[in-house]
C-alpha cells in the first residue's frame, strides 16, 4: 500500500488530550523549580469558606499567585497581610482547571525589621480604632489575689524570678500554663492559655486564678513577635480575669502591653505589682490596731466625763418622786367612794331599762307590727294585679304584630318585585344580544367588502406561479407553471375552462391584483 502524505500542515504531529498537556506542564514546572523562596509584597489576600488562604506576592512588574491550604495555616509564623513585604517558601505547581500556575506556600517570614514595625503600627492603629486600648475598659487589679495564673515557658528564668519574688513579698498559690514564648506556636498557645484560665470554674477542683500574668524575657523584635499577633491581643482583651503584661524588658513594647489591664516593665516587676509585701502589711496592721485601741480608750474616757457632767445637772432621785407619790396617795383614798357611786349608777340604769321589757308591752308591740303587715299586704295585691294586666296587654299587642297575614302580604310584595326585576333583566339581555348580533353582521359585511373577492368581481385577477403569488413579469417568465384566479374560478393558460375557487383558498398577498 502506498503512503500518501497528509496535505494538512502539521498532520504528522502527535495528538494530546487537554489532561495530558496539563499534566506534562505540571510535572515540568514542579521538576524545574521544586522548593523555592520568593521575596515580594503581599497583594490581595482572601480566605475561602473552606479555610484555605489565597494571596498574591508581587513586585514592580509581575504577580505570583500563592495558596496555603487549611492544614498548613497553623504552621505559618506570620499570616500574610496586604502591603507586607515577605519572603515565602513553597513549591511551584499548576492548576489545569484554569490554566494557571501558583506557589503552594508552606512558610512566610517578614523581610526585614522595617516591615515588622510597619505591620506592628498597622495592627496597633486597627486595634486602637476598635477601642481595645481604651482606659475605660481596663479593670482594677485585686489587692491580694488568692490564686495567680502565669502564662510563660516552664523552663526559663522568668518563672523562677516570679516565684522567688512572690515568696519574698507574699506567698500565693500559682498556676503555671506552659507555652512557647517564641516561634510559630507562640501566638496560638498564649491565646489558648488565656482563654483556658478564663474557662475554669470558680470554686472547682482546679481553682480559677484571680489574676493573670503573661511573661517573657527580653529579646529581638522577631523573638517577641508572637505577642504582637492579633489573636493574642484579642484574647487578652476578652479576658474576664485582670491581666498583667510582662513581656520583654522595659524598652520592649508589644501589642499585648496596650491591651492588658496593667503593664509591668519586667516579669519581676509583675510579681511586685501582683501582691503587696507581707511584712509591710503586718506592720501597717499593727499600727492600725494600736491606733484603734488608743481611740477606743480615749472615747471611753471622754464619754464617762460627759456622763458625769450631765449627772451633776439632774436633781436628787428622792425629790423627783415625792410629788408623784403624794398624788398616788390622794387617788388611792378617793378610789373606794368612786367605785361605789359608779356601781349604784349602773344599777339604776339597769332598773329603768328592764321596766320596758314586760310581757304585756311586748305583746302590744307584736300586735302593732302584725297590723302594719296586713295593711301593707292589702295595698300590695292591687298593685300586682295592675302590673300583670299591663304586661298581658303588651303581650297581646306583640301577638297582633306576629299574625301570618302581614307576613304573607310582605312575601307577595317581594315576589312581585322579584318578577319585575327578572323581566327587566330578560329585556336587557335580549337588547344586548341584538346589539351584539348587529355588530357581528356589520363586521361580516365589512370583512366581505374588504376581501379580495370583491376586487376580483370588478375585473381583476390573481396570478400564481409555482403556487406563489406573482407580481412581476420577470417572476412569471421564470415560473414553470402559471395559474390565474378570476371571480368565478381559476384556470391555467392553455388548460381549458377556469376552475371554481375552492373554499379555504389563501388570499393573495398585498399588491397581487392587476
UniProtKB/TrEMBL annotation:
One of its GO terms (cellular component) is cytoplasm. GO terms for molecular function: exodeoxyribonuclease VII activity; nucleic acid binding. Residues 16-108 form the OB-fold nucleic acid binding domain. Keywords: Cytoplasm, Exonuclease, Hydrolase, Nuclease. It catalyses: Exonucleolytic cleavage in either 5'- to 3'- or 3'- to 5'-direction to yield nucleoside 5'-phosphates. InterPro entries: Exonuc_VII_L, Exonuc_VII_lsu_C, OB-fold_nuc-bd_dom. Its main location: cytoplasm. The keyword Nuclease applies. GO terms for biological process: DNA catabolic process. It is an enzyme of class 3 (hydrolase). Bidirectionally degrades single-stranded DNA into large acid-insoluble oligonucleotides, which are then degraded further into small acid-soluble oligonucleotides. Belongs to the XseA family. This is Exodeoxyribonuclease 7 large subunit. It comes from Histidinibacterium aquaticum. The gene is xseA.
Amino acid at each position: 500500500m502506498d503512503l500518501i502524505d497528509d496535505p494538512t500542515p502539521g498532520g504528522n504531529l502527535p495528538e494530546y488530550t487537554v489532561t495530558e498537556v496539563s499534566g506534562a506542564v505540571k510535572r515540568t514546572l514542579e521538576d524545574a523549580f521544586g522548593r523555592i523562596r520568593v521575596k515580594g509584597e503581599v497583594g490581595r489576600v482572601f480566605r475561602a469558606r473552606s479555610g484555605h488562604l489565597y494571596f498574591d506576592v508581587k513586585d514592580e512588574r509581575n504577580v505570583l499567585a500563592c495558596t496555603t491550604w487549611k492544614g498548613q495555616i497553623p504552621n505559618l509564623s506570620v499570616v500574610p497581610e496586604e502591603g507586607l513585604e515577605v519572603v515565602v517558601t513553597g513549591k511551584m505547581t499548576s492548576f489545569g482547571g484554569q490554566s494557571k500556575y501558583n506557589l503552594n506556600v508552606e512558610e512566610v517570614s517578614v523581610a526585614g525589621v522595617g516591615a515588622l514595625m510597619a505591620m506592628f503600627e498597622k495592627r496597633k492603629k486597627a486595634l486602637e480604632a476598635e477601642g481595645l486600648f481604651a482606659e475605660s475598659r481596663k479593670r482594677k487589679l485585686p489587692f491580694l489575689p488568692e490564686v495567680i495564673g502565669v502564662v510563660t515557658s516552664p523552663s526559663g528564668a522568668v518563672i523562677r524570678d516570679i516565684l522567688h519574688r512572690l515568696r519574698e513579698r507574699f506567698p500565693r498559690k500559682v498556676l503555671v500554663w506552659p507555652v512557647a514564648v517564641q516561634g510559630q506556636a507562640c501566638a496560638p498557645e498564649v491565646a489558648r492559655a488565656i482563654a483556658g484560665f478564663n474557662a475554669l470554674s470558680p470554686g472547682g477542683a482546679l481553682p480559677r486564678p484571680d489574676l493573670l500574668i503573661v511573661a517573657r524575657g527580653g529579646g529581638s523584635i522577631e523573638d517577641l513577635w508572637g505577642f504582637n499577633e492579633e489573636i493574642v491581643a484579642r484574647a487578652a482583651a476578652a479576658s474576664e480575669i485582670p491581666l498583667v503584661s510582662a513581656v520583654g524588658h522595659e524598652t520592649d513594647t508589644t501589642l499585648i502591653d496596650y491591651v492588658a489591664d496593667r503593664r509591668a516593665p519586667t516579669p519581676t516587676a509583675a510579681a511586685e505589682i501582683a501582691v503587696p509585701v507581707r511584712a509591710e502589711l503586718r506592720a501597717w496592721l499593727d499600727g492600725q490596731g494600736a491606733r484603734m485601741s488608743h481611740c477606743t480608750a480615749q472615747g471611753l474616757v471622754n464619754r464617762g466625763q460627759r456622763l458625769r457632767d450631765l449627772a451633776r445637772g439632774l436633781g436628787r432621785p428622792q425629790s423627783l418622786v415625792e410629788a408623784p407619790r403624794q398624788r398616788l396617795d390622794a387617788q388611792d383614798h378617793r378610789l373606794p367612794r368612786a367605785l361605789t357611786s359608779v356601781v349604784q349608777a349602773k344599777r339604776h340604769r339597769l332598773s329603768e331599762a328592764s321596766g320596758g321589757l314586760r310581757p304585756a308591752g311586748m305583746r302590744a308591740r307584736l300586735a302593732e307590727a302584725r297590723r302594719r303587715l296586713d295593711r301593707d299586704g292589702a295595698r300590695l295585691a292591687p298593685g300586682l294585679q295592675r302590673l300583670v294586666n299591663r304586661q298581658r296587654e303588651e303581650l297581646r299587642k306583640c301577638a297582633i304584630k306576629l299574625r301570618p297575614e302581614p307576613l304573607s302580604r310582605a312575601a307577595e310584595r317581594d315576589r312581585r318585585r322579584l318578577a319585575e326585576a327578572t323581566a327587566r333583566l330578560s329585556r336587557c339581555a335580549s337588547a344586548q344580544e341584538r346589539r351584539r348580533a348587529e355588530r357581528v353582521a356589520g363586521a361580516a359585511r365589512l370583512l366581505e367588502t374588504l376581501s379580495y373577492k370583491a376586487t376580483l368581481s370588478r375585473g381583476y385577477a390573481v396570478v400564481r406561479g409555482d403556487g406563489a403569488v406573482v407580481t412581476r413579469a420577470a417572476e412569471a417568465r421564470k415560473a414553470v407553471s402559471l395559474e390565474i384566479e378570476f371571480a368565478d374560478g381559476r384556470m391555467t393558460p392553455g388548460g381549458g375552462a377556469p376552475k371554481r375557487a375552492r373554499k379555504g383558498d389563501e388570499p393573495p398577498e398585498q399588491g397581487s391584483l392587476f
